[in-house]
């Protein structure tokens, strides 16, 4: 597809941002602050949990690890795996003990990752994994470039990733990413948050519908695009309730309708502020599903290296804040980007579920700094302190 002329792209981008009511910058922060003042402020209860497992460090030094997704093995949950991005090279798969089972060195800059199970591909139902790749892929004459979303499936025998089963071209920088399966239609989607669409313009979102193309690969059709207001990365979709949650990094957490044909009415879940509980940058988001529509929305409050917990139902009332501290031979977390959570029982080590968080500074008991990695916490330590 030939890219549009720069002037047209600018017009389209500005129209998208204006159309959703997201002006960005100071007006957005003022709007968020006003809504927060009108909302009841629950007492902030903070506690510390410790990780019981940490993964093998990622292959590259510096700011490399970013986001994780948990694949639950349907036949043997104790053999479930964690998929984590290395944004300086590729994507890795770990077992519950943190051991690296696979590293796909794609010479890519993978940022966010998410998955959905039961995707119809050929004569099978597969776990589909999507990752945002910020690498520039140039044309042969080096005059133009694009970026992409890469799609894999999970090998159910090993919990590792297959060769790619599809790609989506992105003519902007794909930053955050999350997947959604509609309860209304059964269709699968991937949401992509864009960065630097034109110049310094951020806060762009696209929604793509995914389908089997009949030859073992996946096709994608863009069904919606809109603006948030300013830089946004973390997102998560609630499949059962049809909500999309977006983290506008300097502003707070927004809740949108996830269905592509719905109006872009949004609600503020919580605003970021220097006194907390949510402190910018607002980063990863995850949903812990409970029975009968209950559960929790979790967020990475990177500004104070903590995590906030909200009710999944209703108006997403704030419940608590927790930090991940040092425990035994495993250090805690700081400056977390991506998170994920599962309420499935994953064997004796994680009987009530699992919380995974990226660690910005991975330190050994002796004080040595190693490459970044991911920390694993039994979910009952967080939700039943």
> Please, how many helices?
3
Structural class call reads mainly beta
The shape, in one word, is: globular
Q: How far apart are the termini?
A: 53 Å
Helix and strand run: HHEEEEEEEEEEEEEEEEEEEEEEEEEEEH
What is the number of beta strands?
27
Report the portion of residues in β strands: over 45%
Largest sheet, strands/sense/barrel: 5 strands, mixed
CATH topology: Neuraminidase
What is the helix content?
under 10%
Q: How do the strands of the widest beta sheet line up side by side?
A: 1-22-21-20-19
Instruction: Kindly give the count of domains.
Output: 1
CATH architecture: 6 Propeller
Instruction: State Rg.
Output: 20 Å
Summed over residues and divided by their number, the pLDDT gives a mean of 90
CATH class: Mainly Beta
Which stretches are poorly predicted, pLDDT < 50 over at least 5 residues? 1-25, 35-44
CATH superfamily: TolB, C-terminal domain
Summed up:
The chain has 385 residues and is mainly β.
Structure description:
- The chain has 385 residues and is mainly beta.
- The chain has a single domain, classed as 6 Propeller (Neuraminidase).
- Helices cover 8% and strands 46% of the residues.
- It contains three helices and 27 strands.
- The chain has helices spanning 6-19, 25-38, 380-383; strands spanning 46-49, 53-54, 65-71, 81-86, 90-94, 100-105, 110-121, 124-138, 145-153, 166-170, 173-181, 188-195, 204-212, 218-227, 232-238, 243-248, 252-257, 267-271, 282-289, 295-301, 306-311, 318-324, 339-342, 354-359, 362-363, 369-370, 373-378.
- The strands form seven sheets. A five-stranded mixed β-sheet has the order 1-22-21-20-19, with no helix packed on it. A four-stranded antiparallel β-sheet has the order 2-27-24-23.
- The protein is globular.
- It starts with 5 loop residues before the first helix and ends with a helix.
- Mean pLDDT is 90; it is low at 1-25 and 35-44.
């Amino acid at each position: 597809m030939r890219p549009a002329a720069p002037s047209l792209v600018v017009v389209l981008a500005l129209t998208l941002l204006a159309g959703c009511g997201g002006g960005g910058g100071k007006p957005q922060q003022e709007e968020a602050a006003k809504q927060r003042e009108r909302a009841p402020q629950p007492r902030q209860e903070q506690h510390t949990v410790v990780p019981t497992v940490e993964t093998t460090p990622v292959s590259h030094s510096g700011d490399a690890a970013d986001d994780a997704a948990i694949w639950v093995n349907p036949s043997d949950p104790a053999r479930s795996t964690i998929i984590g991005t290395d944004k300086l090279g590729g994507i890795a798969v770990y077992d519950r003990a943190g051991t690296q089972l696979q590293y796909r060195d794609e010479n890519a800059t993978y940022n966010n990752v998410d998955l959905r199970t039961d995707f119809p591909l050929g004569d099978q139902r597969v776990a589909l994994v999507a990752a945002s790749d910020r690498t520039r892929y140039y044309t042969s004459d080096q005059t133009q470039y694009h970026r992409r979303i890469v799609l894999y499936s999970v090998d159910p025998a090993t919990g590792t990733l297959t060769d790619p089963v599809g790609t989506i071209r992105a003519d902007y920088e794909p930053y955050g990413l999350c997947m959604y399966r509609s309860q209304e239609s059964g269709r699968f989607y991937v949401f992509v948050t864009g960065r630097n669409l034109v110049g310094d313009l951020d806060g762009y979102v696209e929604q793509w519908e995914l389908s089997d193309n009949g030859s073992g690969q996946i096709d994608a059709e863009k069904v919606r695009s809109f603006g948030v207001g300013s830089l946004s990365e973390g997102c998560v979709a609630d499949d059962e309730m049809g909500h999309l949650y977006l983290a506008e990094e300097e502003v707070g957490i927004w809740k949108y309708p996830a269905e592509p044909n719905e109006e872009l009415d949004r609600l503020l879940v919580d605003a970021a502020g220097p006194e907390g509980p949510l402190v910018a940058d607002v980063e990863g988001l995850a949903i812990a599903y409970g029975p009968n529509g209950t559960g929790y929305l979790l967020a990475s409050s990177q500004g104070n290296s903590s995590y906030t917990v909200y009710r999944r139902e209703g108006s997403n009332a704030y419940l608590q804040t927790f930090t991940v501290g040092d425990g035994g031979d495993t250090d805690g977390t700081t400056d977390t980007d991506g998170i994920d959570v599962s309420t499935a029982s994953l064997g004796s080590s994680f009987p009530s579920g699992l919380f995974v968080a990226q660690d910005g500074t991975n330190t050994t008991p002796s004080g040595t700094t190693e490459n970044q990695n991911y920390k694993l916490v039994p979910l009952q330590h967080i939700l039943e302190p």
